[in-house]
Write a structure and sequence with these properties.
Layout: E1 2-10, H1 19-32, E2 49-51, E3 60-70, H2 76-84, E4 91-98, E5 106-116, H3 120-136, E6 140-147, E7 150-157, E8 162-170, E9 173-181, H4 190-201, E10 207-217
């Protein structure tokens, strides 16, 4: 038995597939592709697949990792080809490799945000003010958290979760490249960042596309 990491893109309409449905989709794909995946032991055995860092609903990604344990003689290229033939629209297998890094090493994620506005003036103003807010600090948002058996609403400082922020505007579009905290203990959804920008800047975003470009480790090197 050996472990492999399947890398896939999730774009277009597939961004509306929840993580639970994605898990079911991948299990069906593995079955249809006849991949000799290892089954868990116990009363209810099932194919063993795991996702390093589930993607939030509504976000796209160019590099999502899924781990499997494989039995039998089958190459990584054969796994890639077999899965590629059974994937639904919007999900595309890009690579299959041996597992290199532990999912616990994930600390950040690189995102690209494509924002469309009604006018070029709005786009330029939004970009300038967003850069100022990130540079000066003080970006806050309300976030629901668990406390015992209940939930509380607390204020968080978003600047503590932003490690890179570059914005460009062209005509009525703003493109942002940003590195945000990501992982099991500290995580900032870029959609929450956009909500905060809209609240502070008071310029409405006509359309937003958020793409996760990759996952990064504690040293900012790519997660492999």
């Amino acid at each position: 038995m050996r472990a492999v990491r399947v890398w896939f893109a999730k774009t277009g309409g597939a961004k509306y597939i929840s993580h639970l449905d994605l898990n079911r989709c991948m299990l069906r794909a593995v079955s249809r592709a006849r991949i000799p995946v290892w089954y868990t032991e116990g009363f209810n055995p099932h194919p063993y697949i795991t996702f390093a860092l589930p993607l939030s609903l509504g976000l796209e990604s160019e590099a999502e990792p899924m781990d499997m344990r494989i039995e039998g003689e089958i190459s990584d290229e054969e796994i890639k080809d077999a899965l590629a033939k059974v994937m639904p629209v919007g999900i595309r297998v890009t690579d299959v490799k041996p597992v290199a890094d532990d999912a616990k090493e994930i600390c950040y994620a690189l995102y690209e945000l494509e924002l469309d506005f009604e006018t070029a003036v709005d786009a330029a103003a939004f970009r300038q003010q967003a850069e100022t807010l990130v540079a000066q600090g003080g970006l806050t948002a309300q976030k629901t958290a668990k406390k015992g058996k209940g939930r509380i609403v607390k204020e968080i400082q978003l600047n503590d979760f932003i490690f890179r922020f570059e914005a460009q505007s062209s005509e009525n579009r703003v493109t942002i490249q940003t590195v945000l905290s990501a992982g099991n203990t500290r995580n900032l959804n870029p959609a929450l960042l956009l909500e905060c920008f809209e609240k502070e800047i008071r310029i409405e975003i006509a359309y937003a596309r958020i793409i996760r470009k990759g996952l990064l480790k504690t040293d900012f090197e790519p997660f492999r």
